[in-house]
């Protein structure tokens, strides 16, 4: 399975993401620069965290206009797996691959600490190795992680089971609507989340609870791939 880690000017979690793929599932992974418009050889595209284009205008607002994001839109339409972490989540909402927007944290402060997440939907390619309702410890590091959408969109997210992760009840670090920490698109092949699983892949990092996101993607892809080979 081939992984791409996108790199924008200002990305700063690209190396962690690359290492997380190497360390957890050992699959081929490349850095892909923002000017590159061809993602055809990749099965999964990872949009990492950071401060793309210095967070000018809004976090993720400029990155959406790059060549590589046009290729990401195409890859999403083709059903490839797309995972946006933190700034990557912000970029995916700006590119309209995911609904809603990320606003400034309610306390107007950059928050950087461990959080407890609840796996709300383990029926996705990104979460199938977790148990439903499993509590996992994953760090956050963001200034604009306050997820917001209108009422109709929230209803749709809830009804279609598109809320993949919530912050533990009573411990919402940024004021996000309905305690949302991560969502998927309707088709389920695009997921965005504010917490950083790529920083939680070894006990020595404080938690290894992020690992199963990467093992899930590989097992989902293998299942699809093997089924296609048999047909
Ligand atoms: N770690 C990140 O990706 C940070 C995202 C963005 N720059 C913010 O502060 O919200």
Automatic annotation (TrEMBL):
Keyword Membrane in annotation: no
Catalytic activity: L-glutamine + H2O = L-glutamate + NH4(+); N(2)-formyl-N(1)-(5-phospho-beta-D-ribosyl)glycinamide + L-glutamine + ATP + H2O = 2-formamido-N(1)-(5-O-phospho-beta-D-ribosyl)acetamidine + L-glutamate + ADP + phosphate + H(+)
Location in the cell: Cytoplasm
PROSITE patterns assigned to the protein according to its UniProt record, in alphabetical order: GATASE_TYPE_1 (PS51273)
Domain of life the protein comes from: Bacteria
Pfam families xrefs: GATase_5
SMART domains noted in UniProt: GATase_5
InterPro entries: Class_I_gatase-like, PRibForGlyAmidine_synth_PurQ
E.C. number: 6.3.5.3, 3.5.1.2
Keyword field contains Lipid metabolism: no
Biochemical pathway: Purine metabolism; IMP biosynthesis via de novo pathway; 5-amino-1-(5-phospho-D-ribosyl)imidazole from N(2)-formyl-N(1)-(5-phospho-D-ribosyl)glycinamide: step 1/2
Gene3D superfamilies named in the record: 3.40.50.880
Active site residues according to the UniProt entry: 86 (nucleophile), 196, 198
Subcellular location, principal: cytoplasm
Keywords: ATP-binding, Cytoplasm, Glutamine amidotransferase, Hydrolase, Ligase, Nucleotide-binding, Purine biosynthesis
Coiled-coil ranges (or none): none
Subunit structure: Part of the FGAM synthase complex composed of 1 PurL, 1 PurQ and 2 PurS subunits.
Reported function: Part of the phosphoribosylformylglycinamidine synthase complex involved in the purines biosynthetic pathway. Catalyzes the ATP-dependent conversion of formylglycinamide ribonucleotide (FGAR) and glutamine to yield formylglycinamidine ribonucleotide (FGAM) and glutamate. The FGAM synthase complex is composed of three subunits. PurQ produces an ammonia molecule by converting glutamine to glutamate. PurL transfers the ammonia molecule to FGAR to form FGAM in an ATP-dependent manner.
Protein name listed in UniProt: Phosphoribosylformylglycinamidine synthase subunit PurQ
Source organism (scientific name): Paenibacillus germinis
Gene that encodes it: purQ
């Amino acid at each position: 399975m081939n992984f791409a880690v996108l790199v924008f000017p200002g990305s700063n979690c690209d190396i962690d993401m690359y290492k997380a793929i190497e360390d957890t599932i050992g699959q081929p992974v490349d850095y892909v620069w923002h000017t590159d418009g061809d993602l055809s050889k990749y099965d999964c595209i990872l949009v990492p965290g950071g401060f793309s284009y210095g967070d000018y205008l809004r976090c993720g607002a400029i990155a959406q206009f790059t060549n590589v994001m046009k290729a990401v839109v195409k890859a999403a339409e083709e059903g490839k797996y797309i995972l946006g972490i933190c700034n990557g989540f912000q970029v995916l909402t700006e590119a309209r691959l995911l609904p809603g927007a990320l606003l400034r944290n309610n306390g107007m402060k950059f928050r950087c600490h461990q959080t407890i997440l609840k796996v709300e939907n383990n029926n996705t390619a990104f979460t199938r190795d977790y148990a439903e309702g499993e509590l996992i410890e994953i760090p956050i590091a963001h200034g604009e992680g306050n997820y917001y959408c209108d009422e109709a969109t929230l209803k749709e997210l809830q009804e279609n089971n598109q809320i993949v992760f919530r912050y533990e009840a009573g411990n919402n670090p940024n004021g996000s609507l309905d305690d949302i920490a991560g969502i998927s698109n309707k088709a389920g092949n695009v997921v965005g989340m504010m917490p950083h699983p790529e920083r939680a892949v070894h006990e020595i990092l404080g938690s290894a609870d992020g690992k199963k996101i990467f093992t899930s993607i590989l097992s989902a892809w293998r299942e699809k791939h093997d089924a296609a080979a048999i047909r």
